[in-house]
Amino acid sequence: MPKSLDLARVLLVDDELASRLTLQTILEAGGYNVDVAASAAEAMHKLDEGEYELVLSDLEMESPEAGQRVLSYARVQEYRPATAMVTAYREPCAQRFPARDEQKVSINSENVSSLLGKVADLIGLRAQRRANRLMMRAAQAQ
User: Could you give phi then psi for residue 5, rounded to 5 degrees?
Assistant: First the structure.
C-alpha cells in the first residue's frame, strides 16, 4: 500500500469569509493542508493544539492589531512556524503597516503563482533552519 503524502500544514487566518475561502482553495490546490481561523483567538487556540509549517494572517481583523498578535504568538511556538502577512490590498503590507522586524513577509493574494511561490519559499526556509538547528544540536552533543 502506498504511503500517504505528508502535506505541509498551513494555518490561514482571515476574518473575511470570501478571502479565507479563496486563499484556502488556492493553497489546497497548491498541495498544502490548510486549517483556517476567522479570529485571533481561534488562531491562537489552533496554534496551541497543532503544529504548522506556516501561519498566514490578515492583519486587520477584529481589531487593527489582531493579525500582528497572531503572528507574534506563532513566532514563540516551540515548533517555530514560518509566518507571513497576507493581504488582498494592492499596496504592500509594508506600506500600510510599518515592519517591526525584518522577518515579516507580505503576500498579496492577487497573483496566485507569486503567492504559491512565496509560500513554498517560506516553508523551504523553515525546513532549512530546522535542519541547521538539528545539525548544530547533534554536533554539540558529540
Answer: -75, 140
